UniProtKB/TrEMBL annotation:
Keywords: Membrane, Transmembrane, Transmembrane helix, Transport
Name of protein: Sugar phosphate permease
Region (Disordered): 431-450
A Gene Ontology molecular function term of the record: transmembrane transporter activity
Residue span(s) of domain Major facilitator superfamily (MFS) profile: 21-431
Subcellular location(s) per record: Cell membrane
Membrane topology: Multi-pass membrane protein
Sequence intervals crossing the membrane: 17-35, 55-75, 87-106, 112-133, 145-170, 182-202, 246-267, 287-305, 317-334, 340-361, 373-395, 407-426
InterPro entries assigned: MFS (IPR011701), MFS_dom (IPR020846), MFS_trans_sf (IPR036259)
């Protein structure tokens, strides 16, 4: 069992870190994920304006990840060198400018180009924040607080879906622009403002945090340093990226992310398709409200599941079971016979995906430290996010080729099931109760306080 921190100074330090950093970083990720996926709602009217087929839309959605993947590792190494405060501020301002520029695309070619640029601008944000949190959070409390940070993913879809739908429907014609263009413009600007705020709000390390007492700064520094000395963890960037276990974790993450982006990009299309299948027609705003439901459920269960993982100290099954749940439910959903049952099963899919995400990120820091952690975490995120290109493009291509989205969702289910199997195989040897990957000593995976 993972025990709570006994030292009152430690409890006070962690409480301050949790309230100071996690909500702010979660807000940044909320805007980040919204700007990345709001193209799914823009599609409802943008495709006709720009003459996009399903395959062309899938390509536009996925091209984001081309620039993103190539620049992930260099960006994270730059964050490790120059500090999180400066580098996260730079990322946010640049992606906000590009996200807002999406409002002015005039052709599919310009859409493709700006999606690539958006990926380059955003590269390094997510792995950078994860690396940053390892500098502040002891391992035993990390999954719960990373879960609180990652709840921005389902909340971005849950709150962003009706917001995007409302802007497209009710702001059509504002500034002389179509509704989807107004949406891109309005939802890109907050990233610029928050990027400026980062410069003044964040501290790079506990030693730089004036909002902690000297005793609290010392406790965090000692605790994090002691965990870095326990077990063998790779500090070399090149060796980290060449590690078979790091690559294997990247492919496990691929399956979970494949499900996440397939649902994020195409769920609005699925709901819009209820008009043909069930003679149930919804406005764009109503479509957004319906799309929000699975992600709201995912947000709640993500927090509870990650808290349970920290309380029990178990990680392996806390990742495998929700990944399997997502894999089993998503292909079944579109074979059901009413909008209610379809959305109920897709809600289970969203719950599975959301619960798997924070637990997954417990594993990489068990293998990596220093610059090796910067490179390795970025590589894992890059390998996993190749699914961000594959899922929308393959789903769109299969939908065009077959006239149905159902075969594509069977492929999504298979990818998630392979992730569940992969983490069980990777962690079964010398895993210990904490469920660390094979080859990690029990000392390296034991939570503080044991």
């Amino acid at each position: 069992m993972a025990h709570p921190v006994a030292d009152p100074v430690g409890r006070s330090a962690l409480r301050k870190v949790a309230w100071r950093l996690v909500p702010f970083l979660g807000l940044l990720y909320f805007v980040n994920y919204l700007d990345r996926t709001n193209i799914g709602f823009a599609k409802l009217t943008m495709s006709e304006d720009l003459g996009l087929t399903e395959t062309m839309f899938g390509l536009a959605s996925g091209l984001f990840f081309i620039g993103y993947l190539f620049f992930e590792v260099p960006s994270n190494l730059a964050l490790h060198r120059f500090g999180a405060r400066r580098w996260i501020a730079r990322i946010m301002v640049s992606w906000g400018v590009v996200a807002s520029a999406m409002a002015f695309v005039q052709s599919a070619g310009w859409l493709y180009a700006l999606r690539v640029l958006l990926g380059i601008a955003e590269a390094g944000f997510f792995p950078g924040v994860l690396l940053y949190l390892t500098w502040w959070l002891p391992r035993a409390q990390r999954v719960q607080l990373i879960g609180a940070f990652l709840v921005a993913v389902p909340l971005s879809s849950a709150l962003g879906a009706p917001l995007s739908g409302a802007i497209i429907q009710y702001a059509d014609g504002l500034f002389g622009l179509e509704g989807w263009r107004v949406m891109f413009l309005v939802e890109g600007l907050p990233a610029v403002l928050l990027g400026v705020a980062c410069w003044f709000y964040l501290a790079d390390r506990p030693a730089d945090a004036r909002w902690l007492t000297p005793e609290e700064r010392g406790w965090l520094d000692r605790t994090i340093a002691a965990e870095g000395e326990a077990g063998h963890r790779e500090a070399s960037p090149w060796r980290a990226m060449a590690s078979p276990r790091v690559v294997a974790l990247g492919f496990v993450y691929f399956g979970v992310v494949y499900g996440l982006y397939a649902v994020s990009f195409f769920l609005p299309t699925v709901v819009a398709g209820f008009a043909e299948r069930f003679d149930a027609t919804y406005s764009i705003f109503e479509t957004g409200a319906i799309v929000a439901v699975p992600f709201l459920a995912g947000a709640v269960t993500m927090v509870l599941w990650s808290r349970h993982s920290d309380r029990t100290g178990e990680r392996r099954w806390h990742l495998a079971l929700p990944a399997a749940l997502g894999g089993v439910t998503i292909p079944v959903a579109l074979h059901l016979d009413s909008p209610f049952t379809v959305m109920a099963v897709i809600t289970l899919t969203a719950v599975g995906i959301c619960c798997a995400l924070p637990v997954f990120w417990h594993f990489p820091p068990l293998l990596l430290t220093g610059a090796g952690a910067a490179a390795g975490i970025a590589l894992i995120n890059s390998l996993g996010n190749t699914a961000g290109f594959a899922a929308p493009y393959i789903t769109g291509w299969i939908s065009d080729a077959t006239g149905s989205i159902r075969p594509a969702l069977w492929l999504v289910g298979l990818a998630m099931l392979l992730s569940a199997v992969g983490i069980l195989l990777l962690s079964r040897s010398r895993a210990g109760a904490d469920g660390g990957p094979a080859g990690v000593s029990r000392e390296a995976v034991r939570p503080a306080g044991r």
